[in-house]
Amino acid sequence: MTLLASIALGNEDGTGKAIAPINPVPINPVPDNPAPINPAPINPVPINPVPDNPVPNNPVPNNPNPSSPQAIKEAEAEYHRGVDEYNLRNFQAAVTHFNQSLAIQSRHLHSWYGRSAALAELGQYDESLESINRALAIEENFPAAWHGRGTVLNYLQKYEEALDTFDRALRIMPNYPEALNGRGNALSYLQKYEEALDSFDRALAIKPRLVAALNGRANVLYCLQRYEEAIDTFNQVLAIQPNFSPAWEARRNAIAKLENDEG
What we know:
Elements: H1 69-87, H2 91-104, H3 109-121, H4 125-138, H5 143-155, H6 159-172, H7 177-189, H8 193-206, H9 211-223, H10 227-240, H11 245-262
């Protein structure tokens, strides 16, 4: 399940072909042996290893007339091939197609965005950040790109900068639940748990079944030692996503803590 399936690359009104943002799974469950600090990502290790010979950092345009109708058509075709590969979780192939699109049109906004998303999935976070910065240099009023940038900064453990970046997304789109969730993640990593809880609650007021925000909320409640509320919120996560094993483990830990406190 993507966190931003309702926002399509190149078409933020929800039409067109959608691509997941930088982070398609929640990043903030309670660890297997939780402590009341520093919630850990679900998947801090890339799903796919970085290739031995990664693609070039900066695709070089090879089309002498990138504004010609043929060039525009070819760039769009490569971009959509990249989206298709991304949605199939073939992230290296997606990067290749986004590179080919950018080699034709170096200012193809959504190819930079898609390239960033795919590179993040490959664990190439510095290159991902570079690509999302290129997208924002072309169009700064692109809230999905600010959200993606914030998520990459969370992976890079640059939490203060991530927080500022999520706030940029929210200045453009105040009722953006995924950005509020990302903001909650950054605040959680900074151990600002009450503020994090507020961000998760704001996200859930807009999108009550946003599993990432429910999971983040449960994790923060655990860190605040509010174990009964944490258990209730983990139950909500599992009602939506029953096979989400980190939530089962975190719920068991919260139950054990509650029983220990009561004993």
